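A note from the maintainers: we've had questions about how concatenated examples are separated. There is no special marker in the raw files; a new sequence line simply starts the next protein. For clarity in this README we add a label.
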Amino acid sequence: MGQKKIKLIDLSQEAQPAYRPASPNRGEQAGSTKKEAKKTKEVKGEKISGKKVDAKDTKITGSKAAKKEVKSAEEVRGEKISVKAAKKPRAKKQRSRRYRKLKTLIDRKKLYPLAEGVKLLCQIANSKIDETVEVNLISREEKLSGTVSLPHGTGKKQKIAIADDRLIDTINKGKIDFDILIAEPKMMAKIAKVAKILGPKGLMPNPKAGTITDKPEALKKKLEKGELRFKTEQKTPLLHIIIGKISFGEKKLMANLEALIEAVKSKNIKKAVLTSTHSPGIKLDIKEKTI
């Protein structure tokens, strides 16, 4: 026999009306609902001027007021950044009262003859120490180099060493007791082993410095007597050469100065300034010395 399905009906609930009577303001409510939905879409960024955009973009482009606020914020940030980027002007170096007084004794517009310039420098150099005398030259040529033998030396004793096997072992241990190292060409292969030690200190022998020679003993004697090698700076045609000490006196300093000008050649010198450790510079007239 087939089973019969029985449907239970709950009569406790009242039957719902099939339809509701239309309210008189229902059309207005529907219209306002559509407007609100449209505004919501615009805020969410679903539809702005007929184009779909991301909701994130509406925060910036949603209104003119928002644009102005963002622009003003960017300007403020830009001002802050520019203030940080601006560097403070470098403070001028303050000279001592002694230096300013000595400067009044020198005519800055005058070119002093060699003898007069040396004499004036010896008069104004009244420091407690034995000041070093230096000549600063501006060369007319770049990459100018050469050697000069000062008759009375520089007043500074330089320790000069000649490379050999024993000295290389000492250097390898980190012991360096010399200012100039001279080497023969055959020793350069062995010196290359300690190049990492000598190179940073500027002590590596090289042909440009004239410290590689077949006659190291003869070169050592010349350097001990006061022979110097001069070379302009890498980017500017400047020479800074020591010619002695104030204690040398006028005659010895004058002899060293003349020897320097003879080696450099006056035609190669654009400007020359004589100075000491704590004294102002004295401009020299090198045209009078035609060698």
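[label: protein 2]
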Amino acid sequence: MGSKNKLKRFRENDSFSNVIQPSREKLIADEFPYKGKWSEAFFCNDRPIVAELGCGKGEYSVGLAQRFPENNFVGLDIKGARFWRGAKTALEKRLNNVAFVRSQIELIEHIFAKGEVDEIWITFPDPQIKPKREKHRLTNAVFLNRYKRILKENGTLHLKTDSEFMFGYTQGLLTGLGKEVTYAHQDIYKNHDLKGPLTEIQTFYEKQFLAEKKPITYLKFKLD
């Protein structure tokens, strides 16, 4: 993507009612206006809140918002030029139950309050395979503790990835921590019993992985 297109998308994001782009400084200073107030101040209802972390182009957040109007969805990603597409689509489809926040995932506790989120989706994160990159894996122990604090009791997490390494690493970590894995599959498209958004919503990258014949893995788990 050219720099002109990126700048154009950044400007459009500024005008979108469903996009929030706080500075890192304001987040760290706990000056984010929706933390603990997403239901009353942004969505103006008390529906469950579902967060998608590393939402990319926003396909999953938008797809889930269409299928589950009884929930509210918040997609997080540091690359606003990517989720511009999802935000624009949501506005075009008049979906008032989905929002996008431009932020690093490590700051998630400055975006949501304790127990504010009902469910988390992590879709096709960078597996950060090199050992020195483990601190950036979105399912390492530090990140899991962050998620646990913002999740409601008995909240659910989903990991959907093409990386067998990420799948195995996360499953092993959860087992070692004594956490509950409620479902695990190493190739969801070979399980014909799986229905719904897990296989019906496909991201831009997922379609590429499927074209390369890569198996798509899935974990569903809890942190209580």
